[in-house]
Prior knowledge:
Chain A has 222 residues and is mainly alpha-helical. Chain A contains eleven helices and no strands. The chains are: A mainly alpha (222), B mainly beta (757).
Amino acid sequence: MKKLIIAFAFLILSSALFAQEKTKFQQAMGSTLGKMATAKTADEYQAIANTLARIADNEKEEWAPVYYNAFITTFRSFETENKVAAAALVAKADPLVLSTLELETVKADKNIQSEIHTLLAMMYNARMMENPMVLGAKFMPLSAQALGTAAGLNADNPRVWLLKGQNLFYTPEAFGGDKVKAKELLQKALLLFEKEEKQEAQNFMPRWGKGQAESILKQMGK
Amino acid sequence: MRFLSTLSFILLSLTSVAQITISGKVIDKKGLPVPGVNIGIIGSYDGGSSNKDGLYSFTTSEKGIQKIKISMIGFIKQEIELDLGTKSIVQNITLKEKISKLKAVRITAGAFEASDEKQGTSLSSLDMVTTAGSNGDNYSAMKTLPGAQQTNEREGLFVRGGTGNETQTYIDGTRVRNPFGATIPDLGSRGRFTPFIFKGTIFSTGGYSALYGQALSSAVILSTIDLPKKSSANLSLTSVGIGGGYQHLTKDKKQSFGLNYNFTNLGTYFKLIKQNVDFIQAPKSHQLDANYRAKIGKTGMLKFYGYINGTKTGIRRQNITSLDYNDVNKEYKDEYSVDNTNAYGNLSYKTFLGNKWLLKAGYSISKNTDAIETRIVTQDNELIQDMNFPVRQTSIGGDNFFTSGKFVLEHFLPKENAIRFGAEYINQIDEQTNAIGNFSISELYEKENYTSLFAESDIYITNNLAGKIGIRAEHSQRIGKVNFAPRLSAAYKLTKAGQFSAAYGLFYQNPDFQYLASNSSLNQLIDPGIQLDYQRAEHFILNYLYQKKGRLLRAEVYNKEYRNLIKNESQNNYATSTGAGYARGFELFYRDKTTLKGIDYWLSYSFIDSKRDFLNFPKEVQPDFVANHVASLVFKKFWTKKTFGINGTYTYSSGRPYNDLNSGDFMTGRTIDYHTVGLSLNYLKNIGKAFTVFVFSINNPFNFKQVYGYNYAQSDLNGDGQFARKEITPAARQFVFLGMFMSFGIDRSQEVINNNL
C-alpha cells in the first residue's frame, strides 16, 4: 500500500518536471525519485538512497537529496522487522535533516521549512517504534512539537494534518488519543491534498501522503 | 523548448558511447558479501550500490584518474584511485568493519541493566517498577532477578551469599549510606527512593567497575532523570496515605525545580486488616523532597535532589524467652519502637570539556538519627519485674553523618576506546549510645576518612572482542592500610546473537562501624586492641548472553571467595578479621516479549552453594540468609485500547537454614519452602484535565504460609532442656493496596503507573 502511495506521488512529480528544461541536478533527482515508484526490494531502495547520498555530496546547497534520503530511511523503518537497527539509521539521519534548515534556499522558503519539520516529526515517530511503551514519553512530545512548528510555517501543508491525525488515531485515548478529532484532521488533510494536486509541483516539493490519509479514513469507515 | 530538450537528450545519448562500466564485489574481512555499499566517483553523481550478493556495477563517462569513495554505515570509509580509460574496470573491494557502540560486543558479566537510553539492555526502567509485588520498591523488583535472595524479613538486598550490608547503592556516582527506611527486626524494610526519579538502574551481582568501591557483593547503580518535558502537578490518594507535588520547567527549558510532599500512615489499613503483630504505632512518615536541575552552557548538566523524612513506628509482640515458662500467666511481650529522621542531599554535575573529555562530579551528604526503645512488658503492658530477665528496658541512640565527594574524568579515544580515572573521598561519623534502663552502658564513636583513586580503560580490539581493565586503590584512615583492587572483564561475540563475557575482581569493604568502634573503645594504653582489616571478596564470573528478536537468554556461573570477614565469638571479646567463606552457583534468566502475543514475561532461576564462618558461627556453614534455589516468574500484559493492565509475579525459594537450639548441631534446621504471588491491576483514565491511574494490588492472594526462620528463647527457663521458639513470619500474610494517582499538565501515565504498581 505504502509503495503505491509513494509511486503515485512521484509519478506526478516526475511528469510535472518533464515539462521543464532540466539542470544536471534536476535530471538526476528526477530520475532517481522516478525509480522510487518501481522500487520493490531492499537492494533497490538502498541503491536509490545511495544515489541520493552521492547527489547530496556534490550539491551541498540542496535540501532535496537529504530530505528524500531520510524519507526513504524513515518509511522503510516502518516496514522493517529489526526496529532497533532501523531506529538507529533514522537517528543517524536526524542531524543531516536538521542541517538543511540552515541552507539559504530553505531559510528563504517557509513552505520548505514546514516540510522539513514534518519529516522530522515522522522521524521521531519512527524512532519511537523501537519500543513505543518506553520511548513514547520521549518522542511523542518531540513529534508534536515539530508538527506545531510545521503548522506555524505553513498551515496549508496537508502532511502536517495527516501526521497530526495519524498520531491521534494511533494513540490510545488514555494517552491523549482522540479518534473523532483524528478524523476531522485527516479530512482536513484530504481537502488540502486535493488542493495541492491541482497545482504544479515545483523544485521537488514533497507530494506524498494522500493515499495514506485515504487509507486511514477508510479504516475508520468514513 | 521541447526541441531543446530533445536535442540535449540526443547529445547525451551520443556521449554515452564513451561510457565505461565499473563493477565488482564488496566483501568484508571474513569474505562475506556486504550489501548496500555506496560506491561513487568523488565530484560526480556517478556511482552504484552493492546488492545482496555484494555485487555492484555502474557506468560513467568520467575520464582520467578519479577518486572513488566507498562508504557504508558500520564500515570504515575507503577512497581508492582508478584510472578511467576506454575499457571497463572490475574492482573488488574489501571493507573493514568500524568499531561502533551499536555493533560492538558489550561486557555483560554480573550486571543487569535497566535503561531507556541504551540499547539492548535486559530491562527498561519501566520494568523495574511495573513488577507486581514490588509495590513501587526498586529493591523488591530486583529480587525477581537471579542472584538475589528472598530475605524479606531483613533490611537490605542479599546477593550471592552476601549479607544485606554487602550491597551498596550509588546515586549519580556517589554512595548512599542509608538506602533503606527505618526497620523493625524481622519485618524487613523498603528502599527510600521512589523509582520514578531514576532513568537508569544497574543491578550488578558481581564483577563491577573500578569506579565503585566498598561493596563486597553487589552494587546498585542509579542515575537520576534530567529535565522534565513540561511543568506539571500531581496528587495521590491511596489506602496508605496522600501526596502531592509540583514540578516547574522554566520557559527557556533550561531549568526546572520541583517540590513533593508525601504522608504515609498505615494506621487505618491495619485497623481494617488484622496483623500478626500488635502495632503501638503503625508506620507513619512524612517526607518532603525537592529537586533542581539546570542545563549549564552547551553540554553541562547540574542536578540536585534532596529530601527529609521522619518515620515513627512501634510494635508489641510475644516475648519468646517467656514462652519457655510454659505458663500462660508468665507470657510477656516485647515492645519495640523506632523514631527515625533521615535527610539526604545529592548534587551532581556533568559536562564535556572540549569534545574528547567528559567530567562527572558528585557530592552527597546525609544524616540519619534513630531512637530505639525496647521494653519487656506483661500482658497488661506493665514493665516486667522478673529477675530471670536482667535486661528489661533498653534505649539505643544511633546517629550517623556521611559526606562523599567524587569525580571521574573520561577521555574518549578513537574506535570507542576510552580511559577514565578519578578520586573519591568519604567522611563519616558514627555515634551510638546504648542504655539499659537509665544506665548508659556503652558509647561508641567512630570517625572515618576514606580516600580512593581509580582508573579504568575500555579497550575495543574488534567489534567482537572488547575488554575493560581497571584498578582501584583505597585508604581507610581507620584501618590504616592501602588496598589495591584490580578489576578485569572481557567480552567476545560468537555470533550475531550470542556472546560470552567474563569478569574478575577483588572487592574490599570496611567492617561495620560497631566492630571498629568496640575494638578501640577499651583503654588503648593498657591494651591496644586488635586492628581489623578490610573484608575481601574475590569474584570470578562467566556469562553467556543470547539475544534475538525480543528474546533474551542469560546464563551465568560464578565463584566468590571471602576473606577477612568479621569474627566475633562473644560480645566480650574483640572482633577479629579471621572469618572466611565462599559462594558459587549458576543462574539463568530468560525474557520473552514475542512468543505469547502481547505478553511480556521473564523467568529467573538461581542455584547457590555458599558457606561461611563469620560473626559467632562455630564453624563454616550455610548461613541462614541463603536458600539454595530461588526462582521467579514475572509477567506483564497491557491492553492498550482498554488502557488496562495486569502484572503478576510468582516467586519460589527453597527453605533456608536456621539455628535449631534444640538440636546439638549448629544451623541444621530448614524452614519450609517459600512461595509468594504478587498481582496488580491498573486502569488509566482521563478525569477532566487530570490524567488518572487507578491501581489495585495484592501480595500473596493465595495465602501461602511464609516462614523466614525461627526465634528461640534466650534461656531455658523451665529447665526441660528445650528452648521455646516461634516462627518468623510477615506482619500479615497478605497486603492489599488501592490507589489513585492524578497528574495535571502533562501525560505522566508511564511514570505514575511505574511509581506505584
